[in-house]
């Protein structure tokens, strides 16, 4: 005899499903705690959670993505030190687990500190807090690749450099449709003297 038939045939067998709970008291959603729950969250926690750090947005075109990065670098230390470099890192389209040609040569840029040091190198530091810039040329290579050359005048005397931004629009994956920075290249031989990064 099987287990199912022995359970159902027994007159005193109990149901395997619990009986619905019935109480004479009305339901009360109050919960009382025996101790005070400590409040570890700041008063503006919810507001700060709603604010996303500035970075790539699906609504940005390639031109807007470049402009927003350059604006962040222009005001690099607002609201805090190297905030503009952080924005650049969020827009960066390289794999942090592989060496990247983001700056032209193969560098390990997986750690933000290494990325930040490159921007403080003599060639790229012109971007930090720059005074003026002008778009020299823009080119849509194809529908997912965009290049823009920008002349930048820095804060120091006679500090002028030209950079080429290459933006690539991702297709598929969690970044589908976003424009991310493939590279920021200096026109000259940037690292001829070497760089400790």
From TrEMBL:
Segments of skewed composition (Low complexity): 1-15
Span list, region Disordered: 1-31
Superkingdom to which the source organism belongs: Eukaryota
Protein known as: DNA-directed RNA polymerase subunit beta
Organism, scientific name: Solanum stoloniferum
Native organism taxonomy: Eukaryota, Viridiplantae, Streptophyta, Embryophyta, Tracheophyta
